[in-house]
Amino acid sequence: MTTEADLNVKAEADIDIKGAGVPPLAPQAAPPDEAAAAKPSYGALLVVLAGLFITNLDFFIVNVAIPSLQTNMHATAAEIQLIAVTFTIGLSALLITGGRLGDIYGRRRVYSIGVLLFTLASLACGIAQNMGELIIARGIQGAAAALVIPQVLGILTTTYSGKHRAVAFNAYGIALGAAAVFGQLIGGLLIKADVFGMDWRTIFLINVPIGAIVLALTPKLVPESKSEGRTGLDLVGVLLVTAGLTAVVLPLVIGREEGWPAWTWLCMAAAVPLLAAFWFCQRRLAASAKSPLVSPSLFRDRAFGVGSVTILVYFSVMASFFLVLALYLQQGHGASALESGLLFVPLGLGFFVASAMAPKFAAKLGRQALALGALVVAAGDIAFAQTASQLGTTGSVGWCIPAMVVCGFGMGLVVAPLTSLVLEGVATEHAAAASGVFSTGQEMGNALGIAIIGVVFFDQVGEHPSAQGYTDGFGFSLYVQAGICVLVAALVQFLPRKAEKG
After folding, report:
1. Phi/psi at 335 (5° precision)
2. What is the distance between the alpha carbons of residues 179 and 357, in angstroms, rounded to a whole number?
3. Are residue 183 and residue 258 in the same domain, yes or no?
């Protein structure tokens, strides 16, 4: 066995040989498996996942505060809508730019700036004196989250390798899913606790101490990394992609509430030439050896190209599922925000059990682990729809628990390994930019799903909402979501087979 003293003697011998003008033997690189076996610190993982969790949580948690805002702040329906819209647009439109900023200026630096801005914006939300202040602060929150989220995957890609990267990516998926699954429960508990009489304000103020801790630990535990070589920020690309994504997201998130007026269709039509011009500029910059915002070479990797589409389609199911489930429980069965949040626990149980098992499934089945998870979600959706139909508006929702566990289990099988299978082939110099595209697909999927399923759901609810209408809308929505999950299982077949083992 080689001791530390032996290594010191060898190092001194090498120095002596160099001094004598004789080249030492070239050091032998550790085999890949041995290098991967060297266990790195997971401190960086915990710190960046904390930032990921609070920024994603705020996408879901605000729904719980709507009744309190209407009562205490006299918020109108339009103002309630703007709270969600400003955050979503700020986040979706700037994720790709945020990722590129990390590649250029340093992922740890941009992550820290994002967390600082998000923490200050959360404080502004928590102390807002009127709805105008709250809406502006929510927009800043979304923009700050767009700086934080893409850096997380960028940092994990450059900090960990081999099996440790797979562990980190799996933890990323768990944090992402946990924010969605438990957003309603956490929000309900905070509002129910009513700490110091702050009511809805606690869902924003809780971010302040967490953000402060993350900021203090980041420089100590998270290594800095950035793209090597010639870099620069493509300002034309920033303007085009921001305008193009806003033109897509804005009508999607408010179109249904407004009755799909002409401007919503014009916006979505304008998005096509804007995004086409963006892609043309990126190809031209890459061909002239300059620095595009998104390198077209990313999409030559089939796992990344197909995976980006799969992410968009799958997350259209995730966000819309949580929306219609909350409405079903609260409007169809009269549950409070806290009661409906507690009913999300079985879903979370299934999710965490599957997340723990997902690495083994992915190692053995590769891409088919994702297909299996999507089909399990589809089966759970159909079982849930059947159960809800049998219960009507007066039956005990406890009978829904088995279907909820199945849905959560399927979600865990998809979300946990998806990141690793999509990003494993991305070069480290494009890590944060690729993460920006990945996260943009996720957020665009959320907006698209809420728009599509929202139309389906509220069409069934009708112009005169009733408990039975919400129950019917929920069941019909689940059948549509089950069909989308089958589509995900089909898309997964286009991922490269190289990930499959055994």
Report:
1. -75, 145
2. 19
3. no
